[in-house]
Design a protein that fits this description.
The chain starts with a helix and ends with a helix. It has 29 helices and ten strands. The chain is an alpha+beta fold. The radius of gyration is 46 Å and the shape is rod-shaped.
Length: 889
């Protein structure tokens, strides 16, 4: 009773709020206009930057980034790619290269830019390193033969020196002995001559002896000269020994160098082999990939800084050179309402006119929705200065605000029009419409809000914020519907209905037709052919759901962008010239236990790079940078497949799987990060959270529906139908965005995985909207059943009572959401498509066919509830029936 009283009090409060808004119409309208103005002013004054990337704390890739910010800041820098392509089929000339390098160097003068990668210098350095390695390997291969030849000569020289030494030694001894003999003879001869001269021997006798003495002295002089010559020869021989010793030392050193350099060259060969697939200038010489590196991570770079880079490089005009920039540099906030969205609004306006009959009445829901969206979107942009949010966040709020804003206002206006036709006075009718349909709008809005706020249960920050912003947009739409709509309707007066209807006011027949739907209990198709309806509906939904078995989650890369966009062209040019993997390199951080220096560093790089190259799907593994402490090495791993492919996703897991092995073999741990790895981690996190969120939503739907309809079967049917809708929507998403069916219609030229957060968003929003339609259709059935209609007649009554407005509301939502399916923003298209198909499936197949058909078969069982449960359940009067009875009867 307390809950029933609470809902009656709420209905009564809304009744009074409606009357107040009607009586103080200009005050209410002015208040909302002022709020809108303040919101727009706040957005203009405090609007911050919207993130172009989605990150998640606690994921493996984010943990690596957090560590790098402190220990290796250079490795955490954001970067972008610039592609230069020759359009005339010729190589880059020296003059063109100089112009390109000059343009790249100019980027370093811009704020936030740290450095650039010159593709031509990089390619030349790579070529020089390869040439130097080949030259070193050639010299190393030739060295042993040369050294052996030199050793042979040295060995022969040593032999010759030994032989020469023997000869000199023998000759020295021989000359010494000869000299001794000659000196002895000289002494004897001189003694003989002295005796002869002392004996006064005649000169003729002495003369021969003197002649012999002279000859003997000449011989001694010759022997001494020979000794001098031998001493000189000995010196030369000693010098030869020294020379041969030096030659031997040189040869020994060369052999030692070969021993040292052989593993060094082998290490260098391994590193170059691993980097062989990395090039910055294509093999045909017609495409060059330059890089621009910022001072901070990409998600911390202000949009004007990236725009300055794009503007600077785009202003460079070089004949026959095409310049394109990558997705990382070009993501910016698109227009909030593009052509597709405007078409959706036009269709919604047409539907409103058809159901409401007057332009004034048709324009009011659109105006209400625009007021609400203007406030919520502006407030969101103002909060972006203090809350980090993605570009998708405000767009989702706008999308939901427009759709539910129009529908909620429509429900109240439609009830008001019906009451006017019944003869109720304008002011009283406004209050009653606000207390009955407005009450249902509040309940429906709360349901959607709960589903959106529950996105915070996923543990994904940006997704929870998206849900909270969307919930705020719904809340504002509800507030506008129950205040602004009554105020404007009061000013319109009876013009909210057609002249024909105004003329019939007071006519008993017209009043009866307004009170009771035409042919109130006439069977509809679902009640006439329940089994056909059930089988056909479930079959259609299951067919639509079939592709869900192939569902893959990811985030869009450059190939998802518009074909005319520079980021798409850059992606395709890079893929064609260097391989598709160049668009999504994987950053691998190898952390050693010890400081890496000199050969130890090279051996470490070679060991890790070689092991990375052994993994499947690796085109190149390039050691790029070493941390300041010498313990971390950054490797850039280029996959053979694109960043959004299943093979690249598996490669990330394979690299992480090497961690235990590298710790055992090279005493180093491996961490994986980068744009590609972050996307994969985020997608896995969301995929893991999806069952929990879906289960939570299903339990919530059961509880809400049991409270509202006091039945067990109706909530089960409704929840099962919702589950079928979810599967059908996700299957359709896979067919269009992952398989490419109808791709040309939705700008899906390069199919890829479904955006990681799309299923969760779709589940939350479709749940809220499904509960709305369930409420507006089945509450009428329950009211008729409670008042004595048979189960089948009550189903027909409820459908005839609410079908027109529910169909109109569904068409409006399909139109609005469908307009966003053609958005310029690749992250919005699948959301718009999913919500449009969700409403289409749920409203037209589940709520209007499957639910009434199943309830027809169940008969009274559809409304069965155990007595004990009936006693403890509160009577939730969502439609404000008590208020209606109090004022109309």
């Amino acid at each position: 009773m307390l809950a029933a009283l609470d809902w009656f009090l709420l209905a009564n409060l809304l009744y009074k709020l409606g009357l107040f808004s009607a009586r103080r119409a200009w005050l209410v309208i002015t208040a909302w206009v002022v709020i809108l103005g303040v919101a727009i002013g706040s957005a203009a004054a405090f609007s911050g930057k919207l993130s172009t990337s989605m990150s998640l704390d606690g994921t493996p890739s984010q943990l690596v980034i957090d560590d790098l910010k402190a220990s290796f800041p250079e490795a955490s820098r954001g970067s972008g790619q610039i592609i230069f392509h020759k359009t005339n089929g010729q190589n880059f000339t020296k003059a063109e290269q100089a112009q390109i390098v000059s343009a790249l160097n100019n980027l370093t003068t811009l704020g936030g830019v740290d450095s650039i990668l010159d593709p031509f210098k990089t390619e030349a350095d790579i070529a020089k390193n390869r040439a130097d390695l080949l030259d070193g390997q050639k010299k190393l291969a030739e060295a042993p033969a040369k050294l052996k030849s030199a050793q042979k000569k040295v060995n022969q020289g040593k032999k010759d020196l030994v032989s020469g030494q023997k000869t000199i030694t023998a000759n020295v001894k021989k000359l010494k002995d000869t000299l001794k003999t000659l000196k002895g003879q000289q002494k004897q001869l001189e003694a003989g001559i002295a005796q002869l001269q002392a004996g006064h021997a005649p000169n003729e006798m002495v003369a021969p002896y003197l002649a012999n003495l002279a000859k003997l002295k000449a011989g001694i002089s010759q022997v001494k000269a020979g000794q001098v010559q031998l001493a000189t020869a000995q010196k030369k021989l000693n010098a030869g020994k020294i020379k041969l010793a030096k030659a031997q030392k040189k040869i020994d050193k060369a052999w030692a160098d070969i021993t040292v350099n052989t593993p060094k060259l082998a290490t260098a060969q391994k590193i170059l082999d691993a980097a062989n697939g990395f090039v910055t200038v294509s093999k045909d010489g017609q495409t060059a990939a330059a890089g621009v590196y910022f001072k901070h991570p990409l998600n911390e770079i202000e949009e004007p800084q990236k725009s300055a880079v794009v503007d600077s490089i785009s202003s460079v005009k070089i004949a026959n050179v095409q310049v394109e920039v990558s997705q990382e540099l070009t993501r910016s906030m698109p227009s909030l309402l593009g052509p597709g969205e405007m078409v959706g609004l036009v269709v919604a306006a047409i539907v409103l006119f058809l159901i409401l009959g007057t332009l004034i009445a048709a324009g009011l829901p659109v105006l209400s929705a625009l007021i609400g969206v203007g406030i919520s979107a502006s407030a969101t942009m103002a909060l972006s200065s203090v809350l980090q949010m993605t570009q998708t966040t405000p767009i989702l709020g706008i999308m939901l605000g427009l759709a539910v804003g129009i529908d909620y206002s429509l429900f109240i206006i439609n009830r008001h029009r019906r009451q006017l036709k019944m003869g109720v006075e304008v002011g009283e009718s406004i209050g009653l419409a606000n207390g009955t349909s407005g009450n249902a709008v509040v309940f429906a809005g709360i349901t959607v809000i709960i589903a959106l706020v529950a996105l915070n249960l996923t543990g994904v920050g940006f997704l929870g914020l998206m849900g909270s912003v969307g919930a705020a947009a719904i809340a504002i739409a509800v507030l506008v519907a129950i205040t602004f709509t009554p105020a404007v309707v009061s000013l319109i007066g009876l013009k909210v209905i057609t002249k024909k209807d105004r003329a019939k006011i007071g006519d008993a027949a017209a009043q009866h037709n307004a009170e009771q739907p035409k042919n109130a209990t006439k069977p509809v198709f679902a009640t006439r052919h329940p089994w056909v309806s059930i089988v056909a509906t479930i079959t259609l939904l299951l067919i639509a759901a079939q592709p869900i078995s192939s569902l893959r989650l990811g985030l869009p890369d450059g190939s998802s962008e518009s074909i005319e966009s520079t980021q798409y062209k850059a992606f395709k040019l890079a893929s064609s010239a260097f391989g598709v993997g160049i668009n999504g390199p994987i950053v691998v951080i190898a952390t050693s236990d010890t400081v890496l220096e000199d050969q130890l560093k090279l051996d470490f790089e070679a060991a890790v790079a070689t092991r990375l190259m052994q993994l499947k799907n690796v085109a190149a593994a390039v050691p790029a940078k070493v941390s300041p402490d010498g313990k971390k090495v950054l490797f850039e791993v280029i996959p053979k497949t694109g960043p959004a492919s299943a093979e690249t996703e598996q490669l990330v897991y394979d690299v992480r799987g090497l961690d235990a092995e590298t710790q055992r073999t090279v005493h180093a741990s491996l961490g994986v990060t980068g744009f590609t790895a972050s996307n994969i981690d985020l997608s896995k996190k969301l995929a893991d959270a999806l069952p929990l969120y879906l289960g939570t939503v299903l339990i919530l739907s059961m509880i809400l529906l049991v409270l509202v309809f006091r039945s067990i079967a109706v909530p089960v049917i409704a929840s099962a139908g919702f589950l079928l809708t979810v599967f059908a929507v996700l299957g359709s998403e896979v067919a269009v965005f992952q398989w490419g069916w109808l791709g040309s219609l939705f700008q899906v030229h390069d199919p890829g995985p479904i955006m990681s957060f799309v299923p969760t968003i779709i589940i939350g929003v479709v749940f809220g909207l499904a509960m709305d339609y369930q409420l507006f259709l089945v509450s009428g059935m329950r009211e008729a059943y409670v008042h004595g209609h048979s189960p089948k007649d009550s189903i027909n009554f409820g459908i005839h009572l609410s079908r027109a407005v529910v169909v109109a509301a569904a068409i409006i939502m399909v139109s609005v959401f469908g307009g966003f399916a053609f958005s310029d923003m690749v992250t919005i298209r699948p959301i718009g498509f999913g919500l449009a198909t969700g409403v289409l499936f749920d409203a037209f197949l589940v709520r209007l066919i499957l639910v009434p058909a199943t309830m027809t078969i169940l008969g009274k069982g559809a409304w069965y509830i155990p007595k004990w449960l009936d006693r403890i359940l509160p009577n939730v009067d969502v439609e404000g029936a008590a208020l209606e009875r109090q004022h109309l009867h």
